[in-house]
Amino acid sequence: SLIKFLEGAWVPIALSFIFLVAMYVWHYGTLKKYEFDVQNKVSINWILSLGPNLGIVRVRGIGLIHTELVSGIPAIFSHFVTNLPAFHQVVVFLCIKSVPVPHVRPDERFLVGRVGPKEYRLYRCIARYGYRDIHKDDLEFEKDLVCSIAEFIRSEKPQCSLGIEDVECDGKMTVVGTTSSNLDGIRMCEDDGDFSQMAGTSELKELKNPEKLRKRVRFVVPESPQIDTDTREELQELMDAREAGMAFILGHCYVRAKSGSSLMKRLVINLGYDFLRRNSRGPTYALGIPCASTLEVGMIYLV
């Protein structure tokens, strides 16, 4: 192309340069945004200072917070907590990662861990997908997600569920498969499920409320090993939260250059990256989230 530059080869060179600039601007802005997330993570001590109720009213339901962090608590959570008077009784920090392999085995789909002490009901879940894996619809994914958390609660080691003093278990993850791959684990049935055909299992359910008709959620738990009282109560609370519904909390981050930044950085961040972010498609998992159950929280990142 350089040899035939004046004969028309300048066209592919110009297009390549435009694409190069666009990819560099996107990569630079995304990298700065991720660095801001890492540097402004909420410490576990801040969570502990709020207490089990996080300093606010805990309402029924599951709050699903999407984040790109695989460890730590995102800044969007502290922004949400300090600006709204209530939060859900069960909070799940969900991170969806694309790994550089064609397929991820269903029995290795989820990594589940606990954030903070057991009574806080804060969980972290990392869903891993290969570049050729097909994402399930939102209802099937929600079922697999809740079952993976329930299986983690059932199989959690006792030393990782002590009290406020033990916070070293934050960051330790357990590999949990999908419902279809883990036939010996906890299974969930909604509405009018038939449990008579499931031999060797015991049903964990709550008493019926004759005054209010709502969707029923039941966990089918293996008989062995025996479940202790604390684990049964935590599973019961997770089941109640699933019956109440699930809210998807998405963070919209507006990246801006700090005051005093160079002219080039302001052009790249404030104009180039902002233009690409506004005109690019969101993540594929966000397309299947029901709009009625979505809550968007905005923040400004100064990089």
UniProtKB/TrEMBL annotation:
Belongs to the HAK/KUP transporter (TC 2.A.72.3) family. It comes from the Eukaryota. InterPro entries: K+_transporter (IPR003855), K_trans_C (IPR053952), K_trans_N (IPR053951). This is Potassium transporter. The keyword Transmembrane applies. Its main location: membrane. PANTHER family: OSMOTIC STRESS POTASSIUM TRANSPORTER, POTASSIUM TRANSPORTER 8. The chain crosses the membrane at residues 6-26.
